[in-house]
Every structure is written in C-alpha cells, then in structure tokens.
From TrEMBL:
Species in which this protein is naturally found: uncultured Desulfobacteraceae bacterium
Domain NusG-like N-terminal stretches: 7-106
Key word Cell cycle present: no
KW Methyltransferase (keyword) present: no
Source lineage: Bacteria, Pseudomonadati, Thermodesulfobacteriota, Desulfobacteria, Desulfobacterales
Superkingdom of origin: Bacteria
Protein name per its UniProtKB record: Transcriptional antiterminator
Length: 175
C-alpha cells in the first residue's frame, strides 16, 4: 500500500479497549507500518510481582500512511479500530521526530513513567501491602517506584515508604 506518491506520515489510531495488539497485527497483515509503544511495568499478583509489557498509551497506536482514500478505508476496516485521531478536517499527522522519540523511549524501557501526574499533597488510597485500605497524603517520591505517604489515622501523621504500585490517587473533591 502507499504507492500513490503522496507523502507518508504518522497518524494516531484510537482502538477498542485492550485491542491494541489486535489492531497492530491487523495493520501489519495489510503491509502497513505500525508502531505500538510498550513499556515494562511491575504488577502485584497474589504472592509475587511480575513484569508485564503494556502499551505506553492504552487505547492508542501509530500508523505511517499517505492517507490515500483506499488506505484510510483499510485502516478503518481493521478489527478493533475506533477512529483515526483528528478533527473535522480529518486525521492529524504526528511529526516524525515525536514518534522517533517514542521509539527510543520504548527501546530503552528504563524509567519511563506514564499516567496521571501524582503531586505532593495528593490524597491517595493504599491498595496493596500491609497498609491496604488506609487513606493518606503523598509527601514525595523516593527513588524508582517508591513514595512517602503520610497516613492519618486518629488525626496523627505517620510517614511510610510504599511502592508506587500500591497506591491509587483519590479524586479531588474540592478539598
């Protein structure tokens, strides 16, 4: 595909939930250049931690195309594709250097953190470990994957060091 002479550029595809790999393989099966940035994360299982490869941006992947009508249609017909990210004028291209940077980050896969920014003072719930179920306030990050959280039972503060994976940020209720 892509033999129309048009300039090829990267575009973002929004996928059905957890269909990133299905879309990636579908596009590759149609001989399209596609990229799904992945990172390794540590997840807690019942009695141990496991390292998993997960999408850096869940629900999104990249495809390099000239956006000829036939290619656009083939992309949209791929199982799991919801839409190409864009506006009323159509899909918006992503600069090559931005995708190249993501490719470098995905290859390095060391210390890449994604998700919502957690700031000092954020209200958190401890969801794993010996303090599971306790609310507190994030004091600061400490090292790779560790945070200091003030837990506040009985209106007293006690700072504890916890794995980042063991906390969830609580919604801000206008506090």
């Amino acid at each position: 595909m892509g033999k129309t002479g048009l300039s090829r550029s990267w575009h973002v595809i929004y996928t059905r939930s957890r269909f990133e790999n299905v879309v990636l393989e579908g596009l590759r099966g149609k001989s399209m250049e596609a990229f799904l940035p992945r990172i390794t994360v540590s997840r807690r299982r019942r009695d141990r931690r496991v390292a998993l490869q997960v999408p850096m941006f869940p629900g999104y992947l990249f495809v390099k195309t000239d956006m000829a009508p036939s290619e656009h249609l083939e992309i949209k017909k791929t199982v799991g594709v919801v839409t190409l990210v864009g506006n009323a004028g159509g899909p918006i291209p992503v600069p090559d250097h931005a995708v190249e940077s993501l490719q470098i980050m995905a290859r390095a896969d060391s210390g890449v953190a994604t998700g919502r920014a957690v700031r000092a003072g954020s209200r958190v719930m401890v969801v794993g470990g010996p303090f599971a179920g306790v609310e507190g306030a994030l004091v600061r990050r400490k090292g790779k994957g560790r945070v200091i959280v003030n837990i506040d039972p009985l209106d007293r503060f006690a700072g504890v060091e916890i794995d980042m994976d063991d906390i969830e940020v609580l919604p801000d209720m206008g506090r």
